[in-house]
């Protein structure tokens, strides 16, 4: 996760059993972005990092 996330969020994710790594600002989050599509049965869920030049759209 990015270091800007509140420590309480990180703790809650860990308490729920998630393995969480907080990266420094110069690590893997220093460049790049993500656009993704998840197929969930007969539905699709799309997302895009709002800080980058992408968007989730459907047709």
Automatic annotation (TrEMBL):
Pfam families: G_glu_transpept (PF01019). InterPro entries: GGT-like_enzyme, GGT_ssub_C, Ntn_hydrolases_N. This is Gamma-glutamyltransferase.
